[in-house]
Amino acid sequence: MSSRATLKCPTEINIVLSDKEIPMNDEATTTEDEVTPKTAGKVKTTRQSEEKWGVEVMGLGFCMLPSLLFRAQARLGLNPTQLAVLLQLADFWWDPNRKPFPKKADLAGRLSLSERQVQRHIADLETAGFVQRIERTYGRRGKISNEYDLSGLVEKLKALEPQFREVAEETKARKRDVSKRGYDPLKVKKRKAAA
Questions:
Q1: Phi, psi for residue 53 in degrees, rounded to 5
Q2: Which domains does the chain have, with CATH numbers?
Q3: Most exposed residue of 5, 91, 139, 165, measured as fewest CB within 10 angstroms of its CB?
């Protein structure tokens, strides 16, 4: 349900909306819906997320993660704690051009682990090529929280994507074929054996 606020235009201007020009003056009014550009995909996604999780919960923030990270956990060789550490690091990665730099204490608190355990798990992830720690310093204060480069994780997911996509497309084709009239599973098996 959208709110329909009325906007008054104090001076004479023209508003252009998708090839249609609307002359505006002091007496003219228009609704917010008419002048607000629509980004259908994002609005729909946000609305669906709010319906699933609740407006209040979504209002505290969210993190976009590829489903492949969850589906490929075993293929990547990640144990549950390592995955949780990666998810926490990803939650701090807001901008693609800026690497996350959470404090170990913050990660430890979120994960109910000691700082030393977090440090060990990150070292394991670094050895496996998922994460690269980058030391940060600040003038006289010296060492501050590390920056974490997740490009190793990104590259590993990109390398697995074609395999997962191929299986998904094969499954989709099989579902489409099985719904067709005259589908014969024996013929399908013979075709596969011949190929």
A1: -100, -20
A2: 1-62 (no CATH), 64-195 (1.10.10.10)
A3: 139
